[in-house]
Amino acid sequence: MNYARFLTALSAARKPSPIRLLTELMQKSPPSLISLAGGAPNPNTFPFKTAKITIEDGTAIEFGEDLMKRALQYSASAGIPELLSWLKKFQTSLHKPHTAQFSPAQGQMDVCVTTGSQEGLCKVFEMLINPGDNVLLDAPAYPGTLAALRPLGCNIIGVGSDQYGVIPDSLRAALSRWRPEDAQNPERQTPKFLYTVPNGSNPTGTSLTYERKKEIYELARKYDFLIIEDDPYYFLQFNKPWAPTFLSMDTDGRVIRTDSFSKILSSGLRIGFITGPKPLIDQIVLHIQVSTMHTSTFTQLLIAQLLQQWGEEGFLKHVDRVITFYKEQRDAMLAAADKWLKGLAEWHVPVAGMFLWIKIKGISDTKQLIMEKALQKEVLLVPGDAFNIDNSKPSSYVRASFSLSSPEQMNQAFQRLAELIKESL
């Protein structure tokens, strides 16, 4: 892989921060080292001394004074060592990527911690996109992704999807304006990457099949583009075995995978992580050094202690409990949809995530329906145009989330929606 051709001039120009390098060196040094080099504040001046966090099984994670001093201090930009070590072993065990050699000597793959996966995605986009670059996007798409891409001045090429995710023939059609050999010609500007949410996609709830992933990966090899596998709902897949990931089939080092703990441990703690080719992860870390500097040390230590206490088996048992909850929520929403919306709308059963993507029959634009009339009925959904690459185009879809509402609330909401649709036809 020639990663240099994917990097922006800005990203390629980044150099390591000497102060950040010293911070990381100090953390690896023996206690006998006397350092006058740091610019870190003295933690004895901080007002927080100890903490105790009780987890769901009644056990506790405790921060004594020494650990609290570390938790409140600066740390390495890529992540604290114990969390990185756990994540690297976990990714190897879970995905078994062909390129998963995490030692610097072999160093084909690496992991870094980010302040939620959204920060990681923004840094990936800024690393790869020059104004005028072509990028491929699984459409419709999460508005946060579109908001991150649009200011970068790239040409967003939508790729059609259905209930099984990205349609390979739609991807081939989008690529048909180029020849595979054009990837070696900078003037032809072949797409730099395909961005996709392969499981429980927001907003559609669709999930890519393994067969489609294989086709898509071969197209990525043929046209030499990267795959950004944004997978925040990976741990909310309702059926087992889970489909193999793009990372698991990556033989070239062309997959950048973003993961998140937001949906299963905490959305407010803001912990995500990126797995990908080491040269690209290194560039992301250089950006972290001069922006956020690092994800909260306290948050990282809390998560690391929890994961070490649970182990991989305990973590996956927790995931199973979360899946059971969301599967019951999904089933409650589907029951409400079957009761009130049959004949008025159509939908596919999501096999992951927390969203139901509903097409309203006989209504070509749901924006006014939702943003004005639905509020009067005291029911709120998201109109489909919010997820269009060109959001000036109307949409007959709405997105409903089954994450927070009770089954009774879902039933009442869809009853109100049904009344609204009937009044609008």
Detail the topology: elements first, then pairings.
Elements: H1 9-12, H2 18-27, E1 51-54, E2 60-63, H3 65-71, H4 81-95, E3 109-114, H5 116-128, E4 134-138, H6 143-149, E5 155-159, E6 161-162, E7 165-166, H7 168-175, E8 193-196, H8 210-223, E9 226-230, E10 255-260, E11 272-277, H9 278-289, H10 297-340, E12 345-347, E13 355-360, H11 367-376, E14 382-383, E15 397-401, H12 407-424
Parallel strand pairs: 4-5, 4-8, 8-9, 9-10
Antiparallel strand pairs: 1-2, 3-11, 6-7, 10-11, 12-13, 13-15, 14-15
Cofactor: pyridoxal 5'-phosphate
EC number: 2.6.1.39, 2.6.1.4, 2.6.1.63, 2.6.1.7
Family: Belongs to the class-I pyridoxal-phosphate-dependent aminotransferase family.
Describe the structure.
There is one protein chain. The chain is of the alpha/beta class and 425 residues long. The chain folds into three domains: 4-40 and 76-312, 3-Layer(aba) Sandwich (Aspartate Aminotransferase, domain 2), CATH 3.40.640; 41-73, no CATH class; 320-423, Aspartate Aminotransferase, domain 1. Helix content is 38%, strand content 15%. It has helices at 9-12, 18-27, 65-71, 81-95, 116-128, 143-149, 168-175, 210-223, 278-289, 297-340, 367-376, 407-424, and strands at residues 51-54, 60-63, 109-114, 134-138, 155-159, 161-162, 165-166, 193-196, 226-230, 255-260, 272-277, 345-347, 355-360, 382-383, 397-401. Strands 3-11-10-9-8-4-5 form a seven-stranded mixed beta sheet, with helices on both faces. The protein has a four-stranded antiparallel beta sheet with strand order 12-13-15-14, covered by helices on one side. A two-stranded antiparallel ribbon has the order 1-2. Strand 12 and strand 13 form a beta hairpin. Helix 4 packs across helix 10 (297-340). The protein is globular, with a radius of gyration of 23 Å. The chain starts with 8 loop residues before the first helix and ends with a helix. Pathway: Amino-acid degradation; L-lysine degradation via saccharopine pathway; glutaryl-CoA from L-lysine: step 4/6. It is an enzyme of class 2 (transferase). Residues 67-417 form the Aminotransferase class I/classII large domain. Its EC number is 2.6.1.39, 2.6.1.4, 2.6.1.63, 2.6.1.7. One of its GO terms (cellular component) is mitochondrial matrix.
